[in-house]
Specification:
By secondary structure, the protein is an alpha/beta fold. Helix content is 45%, strand content 19%. The protein has 9 helices and 9 strands. A 6-stranded parallel β-sheet has the order 3-2-1-4-5-6, with helices on both faces. Helix 4 runs parallel beside helix 5.
């Protein structure tokens, strides 16, 4: 990774985003952070040795990569593509990585808009709880071009333990959706008292 690639803008310092950003600082990346509450960004910057920005655009100025970890697609669009969006601060050939969980169709549409503005895009939703975000052992599913994935690999390694490139744009969000669906099915089955108490079918012994 080039020295210039170690300058990263991180947008979204919530329950998951804050620990993920902290792991990037510990891994030696130079972070500029943005979140909706300026005081929260300033506290993070003071605690971890990052810089706080007033807007996503300001955070992305001078960075080669911007990472978003926000609630849903409208917030991703606003942070990356809004009037003060990060894409306007990224230089030509910059890389945007969205680690939020959004719809596959939204991920593809956002990627197309970023490409039109000269930026590359990876979708990289995560699986895991806050403790896994804190200790850098998240599962990260990545969708996008091979070259962009390799460019971002050191960033993913700082935040996750299992990093899987699942294919083109949209496939990572689909994989996350399937993971969540299977988890919900398992939880519902294990939480159903009638299922747990249901007698198991027996196979008649041969006479």
């Amino acid at each position: 990774m080039e020295a210039s690639d170690r300058r990263v803008a991180f947008c979204g310092l919530g329950i998951m985003g804050g620990p993920m950003a902290a792991n990037l600082v510990r891994a030696g990346f130079e972070l500029s952070v943005y979140t909706r509450t300026r005081e929260k960004a300033e506290r993070f910057a003071a605690e971890h040795g990052a810089s706080a920005a007033a807007t996503p655009r300001e955070a992305a100025e001078g960075a080669s990569t911007v990472i978003t970890m926000v609630p849903d697609a409208p917030e991703v669009e606003e942070v990356l593509l809004g009037e003060d969006g990060a894409v306007h601060g990224l230089g030509e050939g910059g890389l945007a990585i969205d680690m939020s969980t959004i719809a596959p169709t939204a991920a593809r549409a956002i990627g197309e808009r970023l490409e039109a503005d000269g930026a590359a895009f990876l979708e990289a939703p995560v699986s895991g709880s806050r403790p896994k975000a804190e200790d850098g052992t998240l599962t990260i599913m990545v969708g996008g071009e091979d070259a962009d994935f390799e460019r971002a690999r050191a960033l993913f390694d700082a935040m996750g333990e299992l990093i899987v490139h699942v294919g083109p744009r949209g496939h990572a969000q689909l994989a996350k959706l399937l993971t969540n669906t299977m988890g919900a099915i398992h939880a519902a089955a294990l939480g159903n008292p009638s299922w747990r108490s249901r007698p198991q079918a027996s196979t008649p012994m041969p006479s």
